[in-house]
Amino acid sequence: MRKLYWAKQACFVFVLCAAAAVALRAQTLTTIYAFNNEDGVGFVPEAGLIQGTDGNLYGTVLDYGPNGGGTAFTITTSGAVTVVYAFCAQVLNSICMDGNYPLSEVIQGNDGNIYGTTIYGGSQDGNSGTVFKLTPGGALTTLHAFCAAGAPCTDGNDATGAVIQHTNGNLYGTTFSGGAGSIGTIYEVTTGGTLTTLHSFAGPEGAYPYAGLVEASDGNLYGTTEGDGGVHTVGTVFKMTPNGVVTTTHTFCLTYGCPDGAQPMAPVIQGSDGNFYGTTYYGGAYDHGAVFKLTPGGHADHALQLLLADGGLTVR
Predict the structure, then answer these.
(1) % residues pLDDT > 90 (the chain)
(2) What's the Cα-to-Cα distance from 122 to each of 40, 117, 157, 299, rounded to whole Å?
(3) CATH level 3 topology of 42-200
(4) Which tens digits make up the pLDDT trace of 255-291?
(5) Are 162 and 173 in contact (CB under 8 A)?
(6) Which helix (H) or strand (E) holds 171?
(7) Residue 47: alpha-carbon gap to chain centroid
(8) The pTM is what?
(9) Which residues of 131-144 are buried (b: 16+ CB within 10 A; e: fewer)?
(10) What span, in angstroms and rounded, lies between the C-alpha atoms of 100 and 95?
(11) Any idea where the domains of the chain sit in the sequence?
């Protein structure tokens, strides 16, 4: 019986691989640009791209560029690249006052400008990152420099996540650390530069929100924390109202082995079915991460969980 079982499994894998090979042969990949820093664009494009209303793609590189602090660039779909802004153009006492190291993707606001964050630079006292606005022509405005007043950085520190624009027109984002508890914040900033710290993480609802937020169909904001939210927990999914009321919708790793996953480092998305989907860096049946589905009410559904096991992909 075991031989028959493994024979069936091998046949299934062969058919699956054959089908995948046929599908792959029908696809064509073209590299339209290769980063090398020789043209001043820089390299280490950590974040993804967006397509602007002009049809071009916009992105950031984390490092190097003309000033050594990374760049924001635009690229046509045929591969012509233009540096829109080179960070670290404004230096005071070795600190990039205009910010440096843009880690996350940018967005295009409803005013046509580009908005994003940097994880370093911004102020002489803080050097803790910025939220910036960039016109398509390359004029940069620092909307907010975190930790300008120095420690304990109650307004936040290390803006690793991207901003989103809410339907109310304001920008929302997270900082990885800082805040009243020094383990991260959620903030709102107007396009004119007025920042309000809406929430400082304190532990039970999670800690260290590495990723940005998503606006759900109910108007609330959802996000993840990768850090410890209490005993035997490694990360959370949370909901926040636009005025800053936070509710934990799921706490990961409450049981031994973290079968539901652990340490989510990416944002969630809302599917057309109304549920939320996301990934965890660790946990799952083989401790290599998981893909999860979460209902708006906060009940984890592990039926959709992709796990890397023994070199193969197992779908549960």
Answers:
(1) 75
(2) 22, 10, 11, 40
(3) Neuraminidase (2.120.10)
(4) 888 999 999 999 999 999 999 999 999 999 999 999 9
(5) yes
(6) strand 171-175
(7) 8
(8) 0.86
(9) bbbbebeeebebbb
(10) 9
(11) 42-200, 220-316
